[in-house]
């Protein structure tokens, strides 16, 4: 099958999981709207990878792990400020599964992140301590990829962190906004878009 994108370009699908979609434990508004768009987009790429949030029960980032704290409050973790979330994407749970409508057939690599109990992980490339790697950059670099296109959930957290890290790791990074949805926590969406652009990420609508 002919593809629109070069062999050194890859689509990176970020965290399109049930808990981040309507009805999930940490639902992103309209999050399931990305599924149809990604399904139409992924066959145009010769290479597609995906990430999956995969937390142990009692994870540091869960508000329930900190008595008296509520979701969206923050704590000072060993590695810096950490937003607290409702329990979500607990490994092996139904909520951690990919959205059932997402076509996984084009996906050739799945990277699980956030499985270390004491470190959260937004980025596909680094845990939130900004030192512990997922190994994805090395895998993509070894295979000769040059440009990465990012889609998924949520624009202002895991997508943005992933795209910025990709640019810092020497990849050309592109975020396809129409295939993403954001949380927009206190203006975080506009801030993330500005930060991505400042880091050299191309932020576009459509591919």
From TrEMBL:
Signal peptide: none
Keyword ATP-binding attributed: no
Pfam families: Isochorismatase
Top EC group: hydrolase
EC number, as in UniProt: 3.5.1.19
Keywords: Hydrolase, Metal-binding, Pyridine nucleotide biosynthesis
GO BP terms, alphabetized: pyridine nucleotide biosynthetic process
Protein name from the UniProt record: Nicotinamidase
Organism in which the protein naturally occurs: Hartmannibacter diazotrophicus
């Amino acid at each position: 099958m002919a593809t629109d994108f070069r062999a050194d370009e890859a689509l990176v699908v970020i965290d399109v999981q049930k808990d981040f979609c309507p009805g999930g434990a940490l639902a992103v508004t309209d999050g399931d709207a990305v599924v149809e768009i990604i399904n139409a987009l992924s066959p145009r790429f010769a290479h597609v990878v995906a990430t999956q949030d995969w937390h142990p029960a009692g994870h540091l980032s869960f508000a329930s792990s900190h008595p008296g704290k509520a979701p969206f409050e923050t704590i000072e973790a060993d590695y810096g400020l950490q937003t607290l979330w409702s329990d979500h994407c607990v490994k092996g749970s139904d909520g951690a599964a990919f959205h059932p409508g997402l076509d996984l057939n084009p996906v050739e690599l799945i990277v699980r992140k956030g499985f270390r109990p004491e470190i959260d992980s937004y980025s596909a490339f680094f845990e939130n301590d900004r030192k512990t790697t997922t190994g994805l950059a090395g895998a993509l670099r070894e295979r000769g990829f040059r440009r990465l296109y990012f889609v998924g959930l949520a624009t202002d957290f895991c997508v943005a962190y992933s795209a910025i890290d990709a640019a810092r790791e020497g990849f050309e990074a592109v975020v396809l906004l129409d295939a993403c949805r954001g949380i927009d926590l206190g203006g975080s969406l506009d801030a993330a878009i500005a930060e991505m652009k400042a880091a050299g990420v191309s932020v576009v609508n459509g591919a």
